[in-house]
Write a structure and sequence with these properties.
This protein is mainly α. The protein is about 50% helix and about 5% strand.
Length: about 425
């Protein structure tokens, strides 16, 4: 067995090296705690928090595989529901399996009718992510049997319910904002086309989404479906490690995704582009991003793992051209400004040195905007898509033998023991 040796105050500790099927070896530090030592890695810069066979990323080479399949091949030849099947089962479905899977997902797309009352409790201007966190969490109350996470059948039913209902949850959070009636799902439409229908149709007017635009949205879903142990997925795993209800775990992941450093970045990109306002002001914003004291970052740039072009960003960049072509928006000023910003940042010494490339959210916001989706819904769409990966990762963890509740330790920097002083003496 290959080991790593750790020397602490003359004490020699041998730690086994674990080998994955791809990627760097991992030092197994599990026995260190019982020997009186902890490792320190806030932000998990060098820590593998679990083992997983679902998704692989090589950040230096810019590679992303779902179950071994390169994301480029899946984006070209597959669709979101097929990718979800792959993430869950480990293999691509055959034609019959795919039909059964797609049908089951479409058959579970309605929400419990009582949920309408929940929506009506929100302010009309509630952020869709605030609504999504609540409604997804509330599903635990509608399906109490889902708390039996030891039962694989119950887990499977919850996975279908989540994947099927989350587009309805998201679309209705938007309809509620708009003050329009909720539009029920249509089982004859594909997953993305149905979502566009629920967003854009009204009881007075149907909405038949163009196949090109539905395909573009489906590709956004597919590209966001999973991304190994990112902050929200780790949150889902952390919550699920106590065997909490799956709907509660996915609500926790949705809450984490909301932040502007994670899934909120696509919304933040559009807000930033609106703030820049004109190509002539790009230089100022780039300079602000380079100035540490400004607290400003270029949204849609940089990634914890990718120190090369994010492969999803390259596909999404291409999708921008296709969608803007289809809609006759080649001269879209926001897209033009985004391309100029991309060019200036890519040629800038600061961004080159720090390996800060545009990430997927830089382009996905532009495509979503062109699809007529309001900025406030961008992160909700990311959550909808990532649900496929979250539940695959949650199921993998719950089903794994030797499972342990997640319980990190800390480096305590507070006061040492002191004696309590009664209020009258302070
Ligand atoms: N603009 C300007 N400087 C940046 C940026 C940026 N967007 N991102 C990182 N830096 C600098 C940062 O100041 C730091 O400089 P120094 O080494 O001198 O202190 C260095 O680059 C490393 O940054 P970090 O914050 O230590 O890196 P991280 O791996 O902890 O953070 C990140 C990754 C994505 C949070 C960060 O790059 C960022 O805030 N980007 C903007 C938000 C964004 O686009 N997020 C979407 C990520 S992709 C979607 C997803 O997976 O959720």
């Amino acid at each position: 067995m290959t080991t790593a040796t750790l020397q602490i105050d003359g004490q020699r500790i041998e730690l086994p090296l674990m080998k994955g099927s791809l990627g760097p070896d991992v030092i197994d530090t599990r026995t260190l705690g019982s020997q009186g030592h902890f490792t320190y890695d806030p932000g998990f810069l060098s820590t593998a928090s679990c083992s997983s066979s679902i998704t692989y990323i090589d950040g230096d080479q810019g590679l992303l595989y779902y179950r071994g399949y390169p994301i480029e091949q899946l984006a070209e030849g597959s669709d979101f529901l097929e990718a979800a099947y792959l993430l869950w089962h480990g293999e691509l479905p055959d034609a019959e399996e795919k039909t059964t899977f797609d049908t089951l997902v479409s058959k579970h797309s309605m929400l419990h009718d009582q949920m309408l009352s929940l929506y009506k409790g929100f302010r009309r201007d509630a952020h869709p992510m605030a609504v999504m966190v609540s409604i997804i969490g509330a599903m635990a109350a509608f399906y109490p049997e889902s708390s039996d996470v030891a039962d694989p059948r119950q887990r499977e039913i919850s996975m279908f319910r989540l994947l099927a209902k989350v587009p309805t949850v998201a679309a209705w959070s938007y309809k509620y904002n708009k003050g329009e009636p909720f539009i029920y799902p249509r089982n004859d439409l594909g997953y993305a086309a149905n979502f566009l229908h629920m967003l854009h149709a009204t009881p007075c007017e149907s909405h038949e989404p163009s196949p090109v635009l539905a395909k573009a949205l489906d590709r956004i879903f597919l590209l966001h479906a999973d991304h190994e142990q990112n902050a929200s997925t780790s949150t889902v795993r952390m919550a699920g490690s106590s065997y909490a209800n799956p709907f509660a775990c996915i609500a926790a992941g949705t809450a984490c995704l909301w932040g502007p450093l994670h899934g909120g970045a696509n919304e933040a990109v559009l807000t930033m582009l609106a703030e820049i306002g004109d190509v002539s002001r790009i230089g100022d914003f780039v300079n602000r991003a380079k100035d540490k004291t400004s607290g400003f970052r270029l949204m849609g740039f940089g990634h914890r793992v990718y120190k090369n072009m994010d492969p999803r960003a390259a596909i999404m960049r291409q999708a921008c051209y296709e969608v803007l072509d289809e809609l006759g928006l080649h001269d879209d000023p926001v897209f033009k400004m985004a391309l100029k910003l991309e060019q200036i940042a890519l040629e800038d010494e600061y961004f080159i040195k720090k390996k800060l490339y545009p990430n997927v959210d830089f382009y996905s916001g532009i495509v979503l905007r062109a699809l007529g989706i309001p900025t406030s819904m961008f992160t909700a769409i990311f959550a909808l898509a990532r649900t496929a990966g979250w539940i695959a990762q949650w199921n993998e963890m719950v089903a794994s033998p030797g499972h342990k509740i997640a319980r990190p330790r800390q480096l305590y920097t507070g006061l040492q023991r002191r004696e309590f002083v009664p209020l009258s003496e302070r």
